[in-house]
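Lab channel / #folding
Pinned by the channel admin:
"Please post every new chain as: sequence first, then the structure tokens as a reply. Keep commentary short and put observations after the output so the thread stays searchable."

First post following the new format, from NK:
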Amino acid sequence: MAYLRQVHCKRMFHRRGYHQWDRTQFIDFEPAGDIVHVPDPAEFFRDHGHDYYVCCADMEANTLVLAKSKEISKTRKAPFFHEALRLDAEQVLVIPFSLLPGVAAEVAKDVGHITTVFLFHTMRCGSTLLVKALEASRAMNTLSESDIYTSICQYVVTKKDITENDMGMLYDVIRHANTLFNYTLWRENPSNTVTCYKMRGQVTSIADILHKALPDVKTVLLYRGLAGTVDSYARMITGGSYWKYWLLTALKLDYNESRKIAVMGASPPWENPVFASLPVPHGIVWFTACVWLELMQKAVEMTEPGSSQRFHVVLRYEDLYLHKEAMVLKVLDCLDIKCGDKDAGRKIREAFGVNSQAGHMIASRGPAGGESWLGKWEIAILSEILSYANVGIDKPDFTLNGTLTIV
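Reply from TO:
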């Protein structure tokens, strides 16, 4: 049976550290009250769905977890929704998977006119900036990184064999969660008929599964060259201190630093035989290249001619940074999303003047067009990794088929 329960977030997530980046799980919430059964979750969600955001899934208990924030306006402004919702949750609504079809059916007609956009990315590539720019266009409701999709990704990558029945269950959960999400955002802002969900980076590894579950969803992939990605990771891990980066790599202590952010990858590189056997120092450069390669392999697969699961728009961070609002407006045009705000271009450009992750520990540091920290040593390692891995991606500035350009 579905139920409500007052909760609060475990204290550990109120402390600064990379554990904040862990995917949200139901066990992250501590009970602050008794269970209150909801005999008719469909009716309850229809009446109160504007207060409850899909949070995560408990794949062991087969339940979907939605959370109500103490101050949703504050939560929605956070650069990473999953962290803010976990920290600010005051109540959860838990719905068994078996009841989701009825709940989704109750509100499906209300959001039948909504166009959904999924934004996938390869991490450290300006995805938070892009979703903020899309939001500034006033053409859509946006949400940056819910952990329901991370829950599904974790289930897929850690389960060796998924039966046909289990896969069918996953498709259903994805579809119903999308309906519930759209209803919540539609109730929040009924004037917009487009919703855009920016995924966490590792979710790109299951982009094909999400496409199969929701074939009508429009998809965007944002990626970045390998050298720029490594440089961004190095700055993030060291807090923007080049000397700390130099000491860590010189003393070969950067392997431990990389392990602290292992959650950013779909699976730990040291558990992949190909990546674990790469004959290079297993530090920041190696870790970043492995994470990038894993996601780029999926991107290559989905941009090959004839692929049945494809991205509608593919763009590079380097082009986004160079062309700014012109590129964002072109993305909207390619998605056939009309932007009625005559000042949209100006508002989008203003979004590029603000650090989209300001105040967060993984915020980018240093100007995007500034001098790179990477020298001959790092470039040589990257070349060796690409050559040894032999996955069809042969250079750091590899360009995917169909990449959008400004001409």
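NK: Residues 164-188 form the longest helix (25 residues).
TO: also worth noting, DSSP finds 17 helices and eleven strands in the chain.
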